[in-house]
Amino acid sequence: MATAADPYASTYRAPAATPTLFVDATVLDGRGARLDGHDVLVEQGAIVAVGPDLPRSPGQRVIDAQGAWLTPGIIDVHTHLGTFLQPLEHGSGAFADVAETSRPDPADVWIEHAVRAGDPAFSHALASGVTTLQVLPGSSAVIGGRTVVLKPVPATTVAAMKFPGAPQGLKLACGSNPSLAAGGREGFPDSRMGVVSHLRAKLAATRARMREGDRDAAPDLAHDTLAAALRGELPIHLHCYRADDIATMLAVAEEFGLHIGAVHHATEAYKIADLLRERDVCAAVWPDWWGFKREAEDGIRENAAFVDAAGGCAIMHSDIPVLGNLLHLEAAKAAAAGRRAGLDIQPEHAIRWITSNPARALGLDDRIGRITPGYNADLVLWSGDPFSVRSRVLLVMVDGVVHVEGGRRPATDFELGRRALELAH
Question: What is the dihedral of CA 198, 201, 207, 210, to 10 degrees?
Fold first, then answer.
């Protein structure tokens, strides 16, 4: 039941599922280990046991992997699914739901109120092994609003997709996106220093109101969001590219006691990898996007590998739907770049960039991202090494329920088409 603190609570309930035993799998556990010839037992939506030669019981479904690779479900920390619908309808205003652009600090908005559950991109992501994803507001506002964590399962409402108990996040943006979005409008910061000043002023005003006590103040949804962030209840997901911008925003976070879960895009994260490690901030990056705008002109393919090598938290993310179907190959490209630079990056290590590390950034690393007893049974069975273009997804399981198998995935209303009506004359 929804409460005043969470008026839009999750209604997701996983259907009952048959206990399942995966036999003789090559397991990448998401913690850095490769377990050859291992079994994994799933019951009541959770992983119960991992080991060789687990006992079989009546009523189990036994899946003989025959050496196929079993990994945790992929986690995508940066998507706009359901708000940036595919195929794109140019000139129709179809993009409007990704961001609220009427003001520079719409901290009161929640992206879940714009998500269309029937977006086909959800089922395509699921079929590609994505079992958890975060939808964020766009980056044209300094304070973009609240994020939502979803399971990309078939549903007619966003509430039925919401990951139960997953914390929301707060989207912030620095650099050119919010400053260029100003367009000369009054009250909109139009420079880097203006963006930082605007954010600091809003945080300072919120902190002052919190100290004074606001029991008699009028309801203010934007204040509620910023106050929750200042209390550490909303991790920050920060759109930022350049190393200098990231360092500035880390300083602002330290000034106000904000917790940054991840810096997204972060094309120059490799330049400040030690700082990110010291501040316990993940870098969610692409393997090879550079030069598509000035902020990305100094991106390198080794970015994730160098952050990882410094002891930091590296994550691959999508941002656009097509990449959300290829995160395993995005990680493969980033790992290959690291190996060319002399780093030893094995599959059992690189899998963390799309499983346990993003789980950490979302505050869900005690529930997903690993194949270990007690964790949610979010699993992907691959025909071979998931970092090979020759491998394909054989099965996708969410909370112990098989949603994708044998090349079949849930079809959406938008993909079913319409039956032509024969009109009688």
Answer: -90
